[in-house]
Design goal:
Length: 224
Amino acid sequence: MGRKKKLHHFVENETFGNLFQRTFEQVQAEEFPLKGNWHTDFFKNQNPIVLELGCGKGEYTVGLARTNPDKNFIGIDVKGARLWRGLKTADEESLPNVAFIRSRIELIGHYFDPDEISEIWITFPDPQPRQSRERKRLTSPKFLDVYRNFLSKDGIIHLKTDSVLLYDFTCEMIEKEKHTLLFSTDDLYAIEQPMEVKNIRTFYEQRWLNEGLTIKYVTFQLKK
């Protein structure tokens, strides 16, 4: 994406009422006003709130919102130019159950109160293949401790990835840390029965499938 186009997207992002972005200094200095108040002050309902971490262009966040009008969805990514696409689509389709936060994942605890989130989706994140960066994997114990601060006690975490390394790491971590594994497969589309997780395919997911890669899927709950 060219610099001029990026700048245009950044300017247009400021016009969307469902985008929240704060500087690092703001996050540290003052409490986010919707923290603990997402249901009452933004979504205006008590429907469950679902996060997508590292949502990129928001394809999955928007896709889930379309098919689940009885839930609210928040996509989180650090790249404003990427978020523009999800914001634009949600605006064009007048989806009332979609919001986006521009933030680093490690800071998201500043945006939510305990038990405020019912589900987390982690869709095709950077697998951080170097062992020295293991702690930066979004299913590492470091990040799970962050999620624990706002995920409900029966909350569910979903991981969808093309990475064998990240899939194996996550399954091993679930067993080691004694979390509750709900379901796992190393070849999602080899399963014949209908599953909601197969209904939404991002651009890159479809490209990887076309290249013959298999998609892995894990869903689990944190140890209580």
